[in-house]
Amino acid sequence: KAGVTQTPRYLIKTRGQQVTLSCSPISGHRSVSWYQQTPGQGLQFLFEYFSETQRNKGNFPGRFSGRQFSNSRSEMNVSTLELGDSALYLCASSNLTGGSYGYTFGSGTRLTVV
Amino acid sequence: QKEVEQNSGPLSVPEGAIASLNCTYSDRVSQSFFWYRQYSGKSPELIMSIYSNGDKEDGRFTAQLNKASQYVSLLIRDSQPSDSATYLCAVNIPYLDTGRRALTFGSGTRLQVQP
């Protein structure tokens, strides 16, 4: 059974640009959550999608957005990149919402903003 | 007060010893608690889940939950150098804006097992 797949693994972008990250969940999982991990703030919840609907959202500015497709694949977009957006972005999948039974994480996308 | 709190460490133990990792949380009605292990440069890996008060054992790992004290811990018996990693405590806590739950992580405790 394939795990959670995130692409790309690494990205370097310039301030002001936008970026799109992709996540394919474990087959059969309908919930996809996104997290940002930085050394200073740790793992912070961005949002959760379930059946193509944003179900929950953390405390991030509107520059961070996402969507989910009918095959459960998800993308997140960050517009007008800032230096502080440099982080590891992790996608996690689950067959239920809310993290009640835990998540399986992908390998992450390392974003560097210069 | 952070919603999920852990001592950042490092916690250093000799090989073969018991490592004890602790976590406190703020939400009195949380029902799901997890421990993740994260090696440097890797993504978090789920190692234990616990939902009821008491102990849950899986191999060398034991998770302990005390809901009255809002406290969850992880014991690693016969610690090995390969256990050296950051251990993240996670609790599913409601978010203010939506009232819906999501996993909230502590900042992690770095464990070093000395050969």
Overall, the morphology of chain B is globular
Structural class of chain B: mainly beta
Give the oligomeric state of the chains in this entry, treating copies of one chain as homo and distinct chains as hetero. Answer: heterodimer
Low-confidence stretches of chain A: none
Gyration radius of chain A, in Å? 13 Å
Helix content of chain A: under 10%
Element-level helix/strand string of chain B:
EEEEEEEEEEE
Blueprint (SSEs and pairs):
The complex is a heterodimer of chains A (114) and B (115).
Chain A: E1 5-7, E2 10-13, E3 19-24, E4 31-38, E5 42-50, E6 53-57, E7 64-68, E8 74-78, E9 87-94, E10 104-105, E11 109-113
Chain B: E1 4-6, E2 11-14, E3 19-25, E4 33-38, E5 45-50, E6 54-58, E7 61-66, E8 71-76, E9 85-94, E10 101-105, E11 109-114
Parallel strand pairs in B: 2-11
Antiparallel strand pairs in B: 1-3, 3-8, 4-5, 4-9, 6-7, 7-8, 9-10, 9-11
Account of the protein in words:
Chain A is mainly β. Chain A contains no helices and eleven strands. In chain A, 0% of the residues lie in helices and 53% in strands. The model of chain A has no long low-confidence stretch (mean pLDDT 95). Chain B is an all-beta fold. In chain B, the strands form two sheets. In chain B, strands 2, 4, 5, 9, 10 and 11 form a six-stranded mixed beta sheet that branches. A five-stranded antiparallel beta sheet of chain B has the order 1-3-8-7-6, with no helix packed on it. The relative contact order of chain B is 0.34. Chain A binds chain B through residues 33, 35, 42-43, 45, 48, 55-59, 90, 92, 97-108, and chain B through 31-32, 34, 42-46, 49, 88, 90, 92, 95, 97-98, 100-108.
Describe the structure concisely for a colleague.
Chain A is mainly β.
Task: Offer a few descriptive terms.
heterodimer; A: mainly beta; seven-stranded mixed beta sheet; globular; B: 115 residues; five-stranded antiparallel beta sheet; 0% helix
